[in-house]
Write a structure and sequence with these properties.
By secondary structure, this protein is an alpha/beta fold. Helices cover 40% and strands 30% of the residues. The protein is globular.
């Protein structure tokens, strides 16, 4: 499957949708586009939709962690929606100790958590 990336504001969220197997370049582009929208909209709630993503090699999620180390004062609250445990594990590697939560196949719960409408 060809790599595909969409990053756009939807209501009070920024939605990043990845399809296919992401590369370090795609992860970097995603981060840049998310941060640009955070700056433009003032919103820091990000929903990563990985339901159509294929598991990448471990160095790809580790590149996300390196990008996060460069965030500085930018505080993001992120929900990551994945279809399986392998991608959930890779998401946890990618986002480390940040303000995030992984959801299995449940975009609605992810949005509710981002908006503070559910505990956890």
């Amino acid at each position: 499957m060809e790599n595909q990336l969409w990053v756009e504001p939807v209501g009070n969220l920024i939605v990043a949708r990845l399809r296919g197997e992401p590369t370090e370049a795609i992860i970097r582009e995603c981060q840049e586009r998310v941060l640009l929208l955070v700056k433009d909209t003032g919103q820091a709630l990000v929903l990563y939709d990985g339901l159509e993503m294929e598991p990448p090699p471990v160095d790809v999620p580790l590149s996300q962690r390196k990008l996060d180390e460069e965030l500085g004062l930018v505080q993001l609250r992120r929900a990551i929606v994945v279809p399986n445990t392998k991608l959930a594990y890779l998401a946890r590697l990618a986002f480390g100790e940040g303000d995030y939560r992984v959801f299995y196949n449940d975009i609605t719960a992810a949005i509710m958590w981002l908006e503070g409408k559910m505990q956890g």
